[in-house]
Amino acid sequence: MSDSDLKKFIHQLPKAELHIHLEGAIAPGTVLELARRHRMQDTLPAQNEADLQKWFTFTDFDHFVGIYVTIQNLLRTPEDFALIAYRLGEDMARQNIRYREATFTPYTHVDYQDKGLTIEDVLDGLEQGRKQAKAEFGVEIRWTFDIYRNLSFLINEDGSYHPDPAEKTLEYAIAGMDRGVVGLGIGGNEVGAPSSAFKETFVKAKLAGLLSVPHAGETMGPESVWGAVLDLQADRIGHGVRSAEDPALLDYLKEHHITLEVNPTSNLRLHIYPDIESHPFKTLADYGIPVTINSDDPPLFNTTLSAEYALLADAFLYSREDLARFARNAFLAAGAEPEVKGKLLADFDREAAALL
Question: Which domains does the chain possess?
Answer without folding.
Answer: 3-26+82-355 (3.20.20.140)
